[in-house]
Hints:
Two copies of one chain form a homodimer. Chain A is an alpha/beta fold. Chain A contains 19 helices and 15 strands. Chain A folds into two domains: 3-20 and 73-115 and 238-451, Rossmann fold (3-Layer(aba) Sandwich), CATH 3.40.50; 43-68 and 117-231, Rossmann fold (3-Layer(aba) Sandwich). Chain A has helices at 2-5, 47-50, 56-63, 74-83, 92-98, 119-131, 145-157, 167-172, 174-182, 196-204, 212-225, 238-257, 273-287, 305-308, 351-358, 369-383, 389-408, 426-433, 444-451; strands at residues 10-11, 21-23, 69-71, 88-90, 103-108, 136-141, 160-166, 186-190, 229-231, 264-268, 294-300, 310-315, 324-329, 363-367, 413-418. In chain A, α12 packs across α13 (273-287) and α16 (369-383) packs across α17. Chain A binds chain B through residues 8-10, 12, 14-15, 78, 81-83, 93, 111-113, 115, 152, 155-156, 174-175, 178-179, 181-184, 377, 380-386, 421, 423-424, 426-427, 429-430, 432-433, and chain B through 8-10, 12, 14-15, 78, 81-83, 93, 111-113, 115, 152, 155-156, 174-175, 178-179, 181-184, 377, 380-386, 421, 423-424, 426-427, 429-430, 432-433.
Amino acid sequence: MSVEKTIPYKIYLSEDEIPKQWYNVRADMKNKPAPLLNPETLKPMGFEDLRPVFCDELIKQELDDTTPYIDIPQEIQDFYKMYRPSPLVRAYCLEKALGTPAKIYYKFEGNNTSGSHKLNSAIVQAYYAKQQGLKGVTTETGAGQWGTALSMATAYLGIDCKVYMVKVSYEQKPFRREVMRTYGASVTPSPSMDTEIGKKINAEHPGTTGSLGCAISEAVEVATKTEGYRYVLGSVLNQVLLHQTVIGLEAKAALDKYGITPDIIIGCAGGGSNLGGLISPFMGEKLRGEKDYRIVAVEPASCPSFTRGKFAYDFCDTGMVCPLAKMYTLGSNFIPSANHAGGLRYHGMSPILSQLYHDGYMEAITAEQTAVFEAAQRFARVEGILPAPESSHAIKAAIDEALKCKETGEEKTILFGLTGTGYFDMVAYQKFNDGDMTDYIPTDAELEESFARLPKVND
Amino acid sequence: MSVEKTIPYKIYLSEDEIPKQWYNVRADMKNKPAPLLNPETLKPMGFEDLRPVFCDELIKQELDDTTPYIDIPQEIQDFYKMYRPSPLVRAYCLEKALGTPAKIYYKFEGNNTSGSHKLNSAIVQAYYAKQQGLKGVTTETGAGQWGTALSMATAYLGIDCKVYMVKVSYEQKPFRREVMRTYGASVTPSPSMDTEIGKKINAEHPGTTGSLGCAISEAVEVATKTEGYRYVLGSVLNQVLLHQTVIGLEAKAALDKYGITPDIIIGCAGGGSNLGGLISPFMGEKLRGEKDYRIVAVEPASCPSFTRGKFAYDFCDTGMVCPLAKMYTLGSNFIPSANHAGGLRYHGMSPILSQLYHDGYMEAITAEQTAVFEAAQRFARVEGILPAPESSHAIKAAIDEALKCKETGEEKTILFGLTGTGYFDMVAYQKFNDGDMTDYIPTDAELEESFARLPKVND
């Protein structure tokens, strides 16, 4: 108990303790994630195949499954210093409110203007694009966290940024759009009439409000057809998980400083960028047999790729222009129910995390959104921070684990990732505050219909 | 230059360096701020006179102009640990972008969910209300920063919170309203039909969208007529400036750690809460003749209380139910032009700051809002943080000073207060992004008309 007292509310590392290398968990995986396949030839894609879409240095990172540590360039380290290290917070107030003997910690990534962890990879991808002498980058954004992060990074580096924003978000989240514009990005509602794929989708589905998979197709098309541009992505890819390991490395360094070992590590899971980044260094120890941790992914019941998806090759986008990735997927045409408010709406999952889950190194659970917002509100009122709906999936699971400890009397140490803030999600909060929020779980029939359209390569 | 290199991007104090006492600058003022007057008797108001409106302990702080340091209760210190110490940031990226030899530092108060420094006083006022056994507090809010902060504080302490929100903001800033509701506050558009004053104003000005002065009148009326409630205020009052000195005390401690002495200290000024909090410890040294600093208040050209107001007794509210305060004022009926987007719209100014300005201890300048948003955008793109329009007044002045240094070659050290973030001000940013923002400066005739209605006590 005397040690206990020395743990502050927020554990901050000093600036020179910001990681100088990313950790590549693939180096420690016996079963490596399956390679990306060319959607036409169905052959594994190598460096040259990926060059029309991605920056050279990022392709190297994408394909490298053996180098355990990769240096972070100095200019990126300097950018990290503007908003990192992020605090590791001891949730004293939440523990007290729950009356739990559990010790709860969260790594908070929302203290930057993009409001989430997405900036950790955005600056890297923008940096390598600039290094390669490119004019700019293209991307898609749904809820807008990734687009905002990328706009901040490209503004800082002085390169161009074209964002294709899912139309429904473009219309319902005008403030997100304006943040991106303030940082100098051009923002186009998707599907647009700028691209062949956009025109096709608009013709086939008049009045469609778009999807993430469709916006990806548009952004990729523009990148490959515009001189001096490449496409960048905020989740799913191996390179993104690599960059996001700054989260886990900092969290582990902060815990190590106080001799704390988490029993349970919890993260929300959409495409896997935050979860992968948070757990990687811990997973590395687990893979190497040095330590054991319970690692839990939490996904929305309305978009349950881990828990109800197939582990199969699938398209990363709706337009089927992207490579095929082997991952847990609900099918590239799956779109969560219209009542789904809280991000994490991608149909697939990081191939790295998919392989780790398949091999039994982690668990996955689902949460329904009303319960998620209840947890969010409870957390906000005692811990101060208004969480993003995405992050609140992890809060919900952490609270549940802490309440189990209350029953059993166990003093478990719980670490979860608080990926971001909910300032641009107030439409969803309003629905919750007004008692108008509903839940939806896709039926088996819906999923079967979606699985039926998985590419033939799986047969 | 070797010392230079050791200054990190962000200077963080440790948790045990958070101030344990507030500094009361009045103790060092030769000319004390004038006492509040009873609007009916025109006599100075004492402890008993103020009890129907304010909490007992806060009245003591309001009236105490001799005690230099006042202890911060442990529970408030603990709450401060959830979001403090706030970072003192060296604006390396801004300096580089400007090409200035000046050294720019800013104290950033936006890293908490309320998005501003207002939380520093909100928790104190809510704490003393709870200590006194009250059920709850009432207040007004304009742009919403104060209301949000108070909602967070009352949620944490488990007491009730009734917010009267200027109707135009209630309608144009629904997300601010929802944040407050998420924290359990009731939010009523003002003027409402709940109060005598609200009814009167609605009858006299049908369709009015409200004003801060009117919302104050309503909140005070409800507090004085409801058993177990008191009124709390986010600026102007001596007690608020006292609580906000945590900003300046932390900033000074961080600077002292690195042996840095600012030449110029800049803050935006609406009612004076941030400016007073930031400058107090520095002003103390100046008042005691120990050091000299140039201290600059920046106010909107559309609401120029320091630079064009009268130093006179005036009502703090439109309904004339509040005490009279001697301050720089534009007249209690003054409402800034409808095109004014950026907060800082109160007609008066903190009596403490008014006295200090009157006695020549500080300067005041104005900025027009388009130039303020230009500075905001410039800052956001290099320093990452999207600033509140209020804070951007200080940014504008800091950039101007840094550019003067570029001309003269002087390596001045500039400290400014970055009070908050602009996430809930995207309507204004959109106007700016679209090129639709306009400026307005009140005419002399307008001000004269307003001054003509100052209370007779000044004659």
